[in-house]
Every structure is written in C-alpha cells, then in structure tokens.
Amino acid sequence: MKNILTEIVAHKHVEVAARKQQRSVEELEQTSLFKRTPLSLAQFLQDPAKTGIIAEFKRRSPSKGLINGEVTVQDVTTAYTRYGASGLSVLTDEKFFGGSSDDLQQARALNNIPILRKDFIVDEYQIVEAKAIGADVILLIAECLTKDEVAQLAKFAHNLGLEVLLEVHSGDQLEKVTDHIQLVGVNNRDLTTFRVDFNRSCELAPQIPAGKCKIAESGISNTDAIITLKQAGFQGFLIGEHFMKEANPPRAFEQFVSELANKSAK
Ligand SMILES: O=C(O)c1ccccc1NCC(=O)[C@H](O)[C@H](O)COP(=O)(O)O
C-alpha cells in the first residue's frame, strides 16, 4: 500500500482518534438510528424490479478533484431511489472526498433502500458510527487491511447487523474473504495509481467465492458495461462519477436506467 491510500489511511487514524474523544461508543449506541434494523443490500440486489446499480453521492475525489459541488443530497439520492437504484453509496470522508456523516444521515432520512457508508474503515469505532448515522453496509478495503483486521472488523459489523462489502483489486486479496462478508466488490480502479481497468472485474469474477454477492466498482460509464458485467456474474454495479459529473445527476441516472431497460428487453 502506498501513495494516496497511505495518506488517507494515516489521516483516518488521526481523525478517528479525535472523534473518539468527542463522542463515546456508549453515546453512539443511544441514538435512535443505532437501534434501527438495517436493510440488506444483498437482498435488494436480488430484486428484479431494481437496476442493480449502487448509486454513489460523490462530490470530489483524489483522482478527479471537484466532480460536482452544486447538487444536494436530497435532490440526487431521492432521484436515484425513484428511478430504481438498488442501493446508495454515500462518501463520509471529508478531507479527500468532501463528504460527511451528515450527508449519509440526510440520505437515510429520505430513502428507504440500503446505504453503504463509503469510507476507509480502520477501527471498530467507525462501524458503530456507521450504524448510528443510518448506514446498512460498511466497506472494508482489502488493500488497507490485513487478513486478521478484515476478519475482526467484518465480525464486529456482522454482530451489529450490518452487511460488509469487501473491496479487492487483485486475486490474492480474495484470501481475506470470510463468512461474515456478504458482498465482494472488484474495484476496477487501482487506488495507488488511479488507473482504471474495466476488465479487472471480469477477470476476477470467476475467483470470487461462491455464495457472495458480486459487485463491480468504478469506471462504469455506459449501459453496455452493465450488460457485460451481468454476463460475467455481477449482481451489483457501483457508479459514482458517471452521474455526479453531470449538471443534473438525476436526469443522467434516469436516462441511463431507461437505456439499460431498453437494451435488456431486446
Ligand atoms: O475515486 C477516487 O479517486 C479514489 C481514490 C482513492 C481511493 C478511493 C477512490 N474512490 C472510491 C471508489 O471506489 C469510487 O468512488 C467508487 O467505486 C465509484 O467509482 P466511480 O464510478 O469511478 O466514481
């Protein structure tokens, strides 16, 4: 692990240590959202009435800088839900992605589909926080965590009733999959170089352990890609920038879904 990912993870440890001083785990456990029963993204991805798209609210990124600073969580996420997203992904990292816990809490209040807390989880405290702000799923990035850390964090999340998406970028990282992980994502973006290789998902699909829900992540920018990925066995498609870079992400999402439905009907 090196470069931007090293920087993000180092900052995450500092950030989490500071937040622990501000709000205890006991306090987070008292919130009403912490007591809510999470939704299952794995189940929503099986619903044929939905698109399989996990639509991401992403204002900025290390690879692209500012993507969209104009739109609101309300306008974008409610449109994604209305037009058939199977789930939402909300960036909660502030420094590198311009997101926040407040973004996720707003999305939770407005949408009744599963929400992934998109962040760099290195500590159990962030998983308690994820539940307390209304997330249903947490992300664990194999590149940032040892096999033991993945196992421990996934078990902790599972015990809180949250689902776990383990993100991999290479075949060897699949050794980190455990029973407490329901969803395995292949990130087409190399997080150390930002290079996107769309073929990465299709190459790794056959190696993902049976019984796990397969998600393709990053660099998906057209409906033909979804059709190819479905044929390769993927049930979920995590898409951020393709919609967020537009002045009107809701309209871009609606048009994409409509084109996908027309192609799928043929
Ligand atoms: O997007 C980045 O630049 C990035 C850099 C470093 C770590 C993570 C990064 N992205 C997180 C993601 O995985 C994507 O937001 C997600 O898969 C959606 O990708 P896209 O559709 O390409 O926006």
Automatic annotation (TrEMBL):
Residues 5-252 form the Indole-3-glycerol phosphate synthase domain. Its EC number is 4.1.1.48. It is an enzyme of class 4 (lyase). One of its GO terms (molecular function) is phosphoribosylanthranilate isomerase activity. InterPro entries: Aldolase_TIM, Indole-3-glycerol_P_synth, Indole-3-glycerol_P_synth_dom, Indole-3-GlycerolPSynthase_CS, RibuloseP-bd_barrel. The keyword Cell wall biogenesis/degradation does not apply. Pfam families: IGPS (PF00218). It comes from the Bacteria. Keywords: Amino-acid biosynthesis, Aromatic amino acid biosynthesis, Decarboxylase, Lyase, Tryptophan biosynthesis. GO terms for biological process: L-tryptophan biosynthetic process. Pathway: Amino-acid biosynthesis; L-tryptophan biosynthesis; L-tryptophan from chorismate: step 4/5. It catalyses: 1-(2-carboxyphenylamino)-1-deoxy-D-ribulose 5-phosphate + H(+) = (1S,2R)-1-C-(indol-3-yl)glycerol 3-phosphate + CO2 + H2O. NCBIfam families: PRK00278.2-4 (NF001377). PANTHER family: INDOLE-3-GLYCEROL-PHOSPHATE SYNTHASE, TRYPTOPHAN BIOSYNTHESIS PROTEIN. Belongs to the TrpC family. This is Indole-3-glycerol phosphate synthase. It comes from Chitinophaga agri.
